[in-house]
Write a structure and sequence with these properties.
The protein has 2 domains: about 60 residues, no CATH class; about 45 residues, no CATH class. The protein has 1 helix and 5 strands. It starts with 12 loop residues before the first strand and ends with a strand. Helices cover about 15% and strands about 35% of the residues. The chain is α+β, with helices and mostly antiparallel strands. The strands form 2 sheets. Strands 3-4-5 form a 3-stranded antiparallel beta sheet, with no helix packed on it. It has a two-stranded antiparallel sheet with strand order 1-2. One of its GO terms (biological process) is phosphatidylinositol dephosphorylation. This is SAC domain-containing protein. GO terms for molecular function: phosphatidylinositol-3,5-bisphosphate 5-phosphatase activity.
Length: about 110
């Protein structure tokens, strides 16, 4: 997502969907934050490369746009899978110095 509101800098969060079978319970979620920052054009190119690579691996649709979110809150593990929690709607309620404060209006798991 965007690293700053109304900015053109984007960051990338990599999520491993399959966990190795030898991982014990209680391990942290399979997340890795990419160290770089990307422009909007670089991010579009990266998503296009991921889409083509996914199709090449046999997934007919490639990447599928699942939702539009304004924040990622974290992950929770139920039984065998990790679930991601996103904020899908927010409302600006004030400022603390130069920083915007938002109220969460809707989430998706």
């Amino acid at each position: 997502g965007r690293s700053r509101a109304r900015s053109s800098a984007w960051s990338l969060l990599k999520v491993r969907r399959e966990e190795p079978p030898d991982e014990p319970d209680g391990v942290p979620p399979p997340i890795e934050e990419d160290a770089g920052e990307y422009s909007s054009a670089e991010m579009r190119a990266l998503v296009q490369r991921l889409h083509l690579a996914t199709k090449a691996k046999g997934h007919a649709q490639g990447l599928v746009h699942a939702l539009r979110a304004c924040a990622f809150l974290g992950m929770v593990r139920f039984l065998e899978s990790h679930y991601m929690l996103f904020v899908t709607r927010r409302e600006h309620v004030g400022l603390i110095g130069p920083h915007a404060v938002y109220r969460i209006d809707a989430t998706v798991l």
